[in-house]
Amino acid sequence: MTLHVGLLYSRIRKDEKLLLTELRERDHEVTKIDVRKQTFDISAAPAAFDGLDIVVDRCLATSRSLYATQFFEAYGIPVVNSHETADICADKVQNSLALEKAGVPTPATKVAFTKETAMEAIEEFGYPCVLKPVVGSWGRLMAKIDSESAAEAILEHKATLGHYEHKVFYVQEFVEKPGRDIRVLATDGEPIAAMVRSSDHWITNAAKGAETDVFELDDEALALVRKASDAVGGGLLGIDLMEIGDSYTVHEVNHTVEFKALDDAVETDIAATVVDWLEGKADAAADELEVTA
Ligand SMILES: Nc1ncnc2c1ncn2[C@@H]1O[C@H](COP(=O)(O)OP(=O)(O)O)[C@@H](O)[C@H]1O
Ligand SMILES: [Mg+2]
Question: Which ligand has an atom closest to residue 241 CA?
Fold first, then answer.
């Protein structure tokens, strides 16, 4: 069955190019929806969305993802990832709460709303510990706090100069990982591929220049990936793990996940596997419509 797929985007990166090529090779019809040029009416779907079987949200900006996914759901157009998943993954506090609730091992984390209480949380963890922005990715604006004087300075800067989101202080234990972390790309908890990201720096994002290499998941990691995916409502997800001895801790789940670094690191054809999954999703959504019709 050929599909009519909407690709919601603001910039076509290599990740989107890989998806577009794969979709077109399979003769699926693709409508590219530039979120910057589109308006969303609360009462009815724009004519441009007629006939869409499924929409893939590839927005870079979190706020756009969060609103646009709600509109597609209101229009009855299946969208991946779902609004629920985007909502949880877009915010590190919600992400951590969801992982903890699902019983997924995740770094000890405290949230505070003033400089004074943030300082208390930092002192409770001791040094070093980590301060992260609640919204953001690519390892940006993360701080490893080594001393009380560094803590005071960072908290004052954030409180004085930061956007209101930076006035939510997300404090985390520092995990002594072995110079690398693990990124798993999964669809509804089923891993497509995984890589380690190694760096001399404590922040090991591929976007920060970490070296990447293929990683074979053991049974424990597989189980954690499933659980972490379920915890945020499933979808096409990037699950980040750190190794602690022979075990793992999951520090976050990403929702509009980039996969070009992974595509380069592993043999698996990432775009083909993602499109297989999309086809399944669209089929399932069509079946559901028939049942309710
Ligand atoms: N608590 C921690 N202890 C040690 N390293 C961490 C910790 N949290 C994050 N890191 C490192 O920083 C990187 C980015 O952190 P992450 O929470 O994934 O934020 P982002 O959303 O910016 O990717 C991780 O991939 C990991 O290498
Ligand atoms: Mg990350």
Answer: 1
The vertex-285 CA angle with 281 and 287, nearest 5°, equals 115
DSSP for 57-100? EE-SSHHHHHHHHHHHHHTT--EES-HHHHHHHT-HHHHHHHHH
Domain count, the chain: 2
What does the pLDDT look like over 189-240, one tens digit per residue?
A: 999 999 999 999 999 998 888 999 999 999 999 999 999 999 999 999 999 9
* Full-model pTM: 0.96
For ligand 1, whether the C-beta of 81 sits within 6 Å is no
Q: Find the domain containing 250 and state its range.
A: 176-271
Q: Is the peptide bond before 107 cis (omega within 30 degrees of 0)?
A: no
CATH of the domain at 244: 3.30.470.20
Residue 117 sits in a domain whose CATH number is 3.30.1490.20
